[in-house]
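Query structure, 396 tokens:
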């Protein structure tokens, strides 16, 4: 049987539809709708950087522009519709996925003690029982509440005191869960006090977890290699994903497809047999959309570069003189194309969204129509940020 091909235009539509970026970003954005959106995406990365909006808030706003940041707190701490844990990074994840994270807890338990002992020394291992006991006795705790008398360094984000490291270790290995955030600070409690009892009681073995991880990743990506399936949640190994793909293909659950990249090169992937259905039913909006650097559609930088011809790298840790663009610039999408990147920040003192620079992609010149669409999106972003005006710096 001939292997079916997806040209680049169709592939983009399939991928963006699965990521909620093909439809207009309208509609209700209450707790129920945002919980459903997170489930549709699989997870939403949580990040602390705040120039315009935190990554998780911007990801949700890009798809539902009525969204406001307080809603995620309700979804998490009140409704328990999501839990917070690690994928490739800290993320909020649909609560129904929690039983499959038990495999990650077990594997982290085996790996982190040795790895973190080399990084943070072994002091934190001596504090695990004390930190656990403090939470058992006193309830939810933050890193400020543990480690009384320990030296608290100021050497950077990852310069943790021993009890803080123990707290994170207990979270990463599943004994603790994040019950809420105060500001951006995590508050931890015993997992059985955070996860709804019916979900906490469920278990999934390795085979069930591999099957769930691969199937749900494929449904969210539309098409993928086995490596991309393994990388989606960072929950299983690449060899486990390869084995699942072989078995699923033999059973007719998935089929091989050849997908055209932005440069015309073809990559062999897997997809559901009905992946083509409905692709042409939704007209992609012409509007311009501002995306977080951590948007799920861009998280896999190599895939984004192959599919869209858009090379994006975070330059936060690059010395200023060596940056190509800026400290934290936002990708800009129009329809199914990534057309540029923009440097902007919220200036509370000036009550403004300040635009410092814009860099168009090749063959995406900023003509009058595109400029008007960009300005309209910046005005929507200004309202989301809660400031009075959009201000363009000279020479932007």
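Result returned for the query:
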């Amino acid at each position: 049987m001939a292997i079916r091909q997806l040209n680049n235009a169709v592939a983009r539509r399939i991928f963006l539809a699965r990521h909620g970026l093909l439809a207009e970003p309208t509609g209700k954005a209450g707790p129920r709708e945002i919980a459903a959106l997170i489930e549709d995406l699989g997870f939403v990365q949580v990040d602390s950087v705040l120039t315009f909006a935190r990554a998780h808030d911007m990801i949700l706003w890009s798809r539902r522009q009525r969204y406001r940041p307080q809603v995620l707190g309700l979804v998490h701490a009140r409704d328990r519709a999501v839990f917070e844990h690690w994928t490739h990074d800290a993320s909020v994840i649909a609560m129904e996925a929690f039983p499959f994270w038990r495999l990650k807890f077990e594997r982290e338990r085996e790996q982190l003690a040795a790895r973190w002992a080399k990084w943070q020394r072994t002091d934190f291992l001596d504090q695990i029982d004390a930190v656990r006991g403090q939470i058992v006795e006193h309830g939810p705790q933050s890193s400020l509440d543990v480690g009384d008398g320990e030296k608290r360094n100021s050497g950077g984000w990852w310069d943790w005191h021993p009890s803080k490291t123990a707290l994170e270790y207990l979270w990463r290995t599943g004994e603790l869960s994040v019950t809420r955030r105060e500001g951006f600070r995590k508050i931890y409690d015993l997992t059985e006090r955070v996860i709804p009892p019916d979900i906490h009681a469920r278990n999934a073995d390795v085979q069930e977890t591999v099957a769930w991880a691969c199937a749900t990743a494929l449904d969210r990506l539309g098409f993928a290699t086995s490596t991309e399936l393994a990388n989606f949640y960072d929950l299983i190994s690449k060899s486990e994903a390869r084995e699942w793909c072989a078995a699923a293909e033999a059973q007719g659950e998935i089929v091989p497809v050849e997908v055209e990249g932005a440069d015309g090169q073809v990559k062999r992937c897997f997809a559901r047999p009905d992946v083509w259905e409905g692709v042409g039913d939704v007209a992609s909006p012409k509007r311009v959309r501002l995306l977080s650097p951590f948007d799920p559609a861009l998280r896999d930088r190599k895939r984004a570069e192959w599919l869209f011809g858009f090379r994006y790298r975070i330059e936060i840790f690059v010395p200023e003189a060596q940056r190509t663009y800026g400290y934290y610039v936002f990708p800009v999408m129009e329809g199914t194309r990534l057309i540029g990147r923009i440097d902007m920040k919220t200036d509370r003192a000036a009550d403004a969204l300040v635009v410092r620079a814009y860099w168009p992609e090749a063959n995406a010149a900023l003509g009058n129509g595109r400029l008007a669409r960009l300005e309209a999106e910046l005005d929507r972003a200004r309202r989301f940020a809660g400031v009075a005006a959009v201000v363009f710096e000279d020479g932007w």
